[in-house]
Amino acid sequence: MRTAYDFSPLYRSSIGFDRVFNLLDDASKVTTVDNWPPYDIAKLDDDDYRITVAVAGFTQSDLSMTQEQNLLMVSGQKSEEGEGEYLHRGIAGRAFERRFQLADHVKVTAATLKDGLLTIELRREIPEEMKPRRIEIAGERSAPKIERSTVEAKAEQEAA
User: What number of other Cβ atoms are within 10 A of residue 108's Cβ?
Assistant: First the structure.
């Protein structure tokens, strides 16, 4: 049994996390789990990931991969081949579409198909302007002197 979570209290006290709450809300609404084709997700280090999808029987021309913003879609459509009548068909060749939600700044760097495994390399590349930077703190003597305008100085003299 799934329980629907109410994220509305979090919307009142957090800013910019709408996408995270939407992802959690969408994940809780998933009713059917399609586990074909099987896949693995591996974290190689802090910024590198690998997705391996088992696509036995599919050729490079049967597969398609697109990345739109934070969504990676891998799909396969097997071309119909009339190689005789099957008495038993155990190797699945049905069409599929797999969707992977990607974090911000995660990009696909490479994709290879070898031995029935589609390997997708991903890397998180944070732009320079978003990386932490060191800010120098000036001492009292090196701080710029701010001079008051003459209007403020005259007003202060008249008040005294």
Answer: 17
Between CA 122 and CA 105 the distance in angstroms is 10
Two tokens, residue 9 = 């209290």
The letter for the amino acid at 95 is A
Burial class of residue 124 in the structure, from the number of CB atoms within 10 Å of its CB (0-12 exposed, 13-18 middle, 19+ buried): middle
Instruction: Report the 10 Å Cβ neighbour count for 16.
Output: 6
For 54, the token pair is: 């088992």
One-letter amino acid for residue 105 of the chain: H
Verdict on whether the full-model pTM lies above 0.85: no
Residue with tokens 């799934």: 2
The amino acid occupying position 46 is: D
DSSP 121-138: EEEE---GGGS-------
Digit-coded pLDDT (tens) for 80-133: 766 778 788 777 778 899 999 888 889 999 999 999 999 999 999 888 887 788
Give me 40's structure tokens. Answer: 């693995």
CA pair distance 148, 70, nearest whole angstrom: 51
* C-alpha angle 134-136-142 in degrees, rounded to nearest 5: 175
